[in-house]
Amino acid sequence: MGHTVTVHARSAVVDLFGDHLRRRGWWAPVSALLALTATVDVAGPATRTAISRLVAQGWLEARSESGVRGYAASARARQRWERAHDRVYATAPPAWDGQWHMVHVDSGGDRRRREQVTRTLTYLGYGRLGSGGWVSPRPSPELEPSLAPLGVGWVAVHGALTPAQHAAGLADRVWDLGGLAQEHRRFAAGLAPPSGVTGLGPERAYRERTILVHEWRRFLFRDPDLPPEVLPHDWPGHQARRHFLALAAALAPAADRHVDDVLDAASR
């Protein structure tokens, strides 16, 4: 990646499930989880703490297979992490119908709840539009199940902006496009060319790919994946996405071998 990246324990576990274990039954032995997160410098106690918290929050479930202790993603986690995976590896923003999804959330005077609403809606691709107001170029299928546990009231409207030519201005007002463009340029500048990673061994490839995906996945919390119609014509996010996908694909075969080797050893 060209610079030092710290992967926190929770992110390492979530990325492992969402990027690798989703294709391997959504389950892994405890020892494999510890070994794979250690590859990105996460200590065992930190991984165990992260797993315990993910269990308490309903994302993971303790489960043994063939006498081997391990953890599996819950049904709720599978749904969330499948959608996150689709967003991470999307080759282009979803098609846009020219309409906007506007949501008003009443979180009351509870500061902690307001912060939870902000984190939730930002992750789902909504930008703040005034007090309690949020807007996105498309409705999120996760909106209702994500807001329900927060106990807030909300209403939504889906429609076209009038006049339609003000759409780019709305996007620029709601999101910091200049700052986001700079982040995309910085991300892309730190990437190696895909041809430069083809000779890496399995463990090194897994480490590099995990850090790469971790860094790109952070854009899910900052970049609403706006349609090209409302972005500058030279939007750097498009190039960053192409570079990320090419590099991730180049690292995948060797990284997958490492995951398979660790899982096989842990299941014996």
Quick rundown:
The protein has 268 residues and is α+β, with helices and mostly antiparallel strands. Helices cover 50% and strands 14% of the residues. Among the domains are: 99-160, Alpha-Beta Plaits (2-Layer Sandwich); 176-255, no CATH class.
Describe this structure in words.
The protein has 268 residues and is of the alpha+beta class. The chain is 50% helix and 14% strand. Among the domains are: 99-160, Alpha-Beta Plaits, CATH 3.30.70; 176-255, no CATH class. The chain has helices at 9-19, 30-38, 44-56, 75-88, 111-123, 143-147, 167-174, 177-189, 202-217, 236-267; strands at residues 27-29, 60-65, 68-73, 99-106, 127-128, 133-136, 153-160. It has a four-stranded antiparallel sheet with strand order 5-6-4-7, with helices on one face. Strands 1-3-2 form a three-stranded antiparallel sheet. Helix 1 packs across helix 4 (75-88). The mean pLDDT is 93.
